[in-house]
Amino acid sequence: MRPLGLRTVAATSCIPANSDMKPRRFLPANRIIFPLSIGLLLTFSGSQQAYGVFGDSEARRQIKDLSTRVEQRLDILSRGQFELLNQIQALREENARLRGQVETLAHELESSRRRQLDFYQDLDGRLRRLEPTPPSSGGTEQGGHSANDDQTPRADHAVEAAHYEAALKYFQAKRYRDAAAALDRFVKDYPQSSRAPGAQYWLGNAHYALKDCRRAIDAYRVVVSRWPRDARAPEALIGIATCQQELGDARGARATLESIVSNYPQSPSAATARQRLNTR
Fold it and tell me: What angle (nearest 5°) sits at the alpha carbon of residue 62, between those of residues 58 and 64?
């Protein structure tokens, strides 16, 4: 038996069995379902199209907001890079300035070291030339004086020489404080001694070795003022000029060197002064 088709069921199911009504002719099911499907499809497509339009607007808005934020970030980054470049340039300039200062200080330090070395070499040479020789012991002086009459002066002379030599030995051993104290005491104890100019001169050298240029200048000036004709006077002036240069008094140092050339033209110190004047 062949199953009833959709068309037969649709036609017979709507007529009662005992009815004398003539069966009505209905449209086929496919003719009803197809327009309905088309309508639903159009409705769905319309909603999808409307949703698509709404989604594009939202996307455009988000893209615009994102573009605005990116531009703001780029502007901030640009300003930061510009400030960073300015800082780098400032650091380069500061580095160049500091490098110049370091080079200048290194040059001044090297010049000071050379001057100090020259001074100590000259000082050592003068020290060797000026080392005192022990006094020669003589016999009984003529003129009626006995040995007992000269015993006390000779004893004092020997003590004086021992004190002077002890002070110089302190200096040679680089015990400059002890040397300064011993030399200062010697000058006070023996102001009329023939060794007093040398003691005063070495007192200035001891203060200079202790890096006390002001006291060294004071000691050197005593030599020049009290014993201007002594051989150590122009050497004391060399010491004064050196200390003035160390203290930054270039004008005073030049004036002192010129006074050596003027007042002691034939002395070895004058040759040193001329050399220093030519190199300034």
Answer: 115
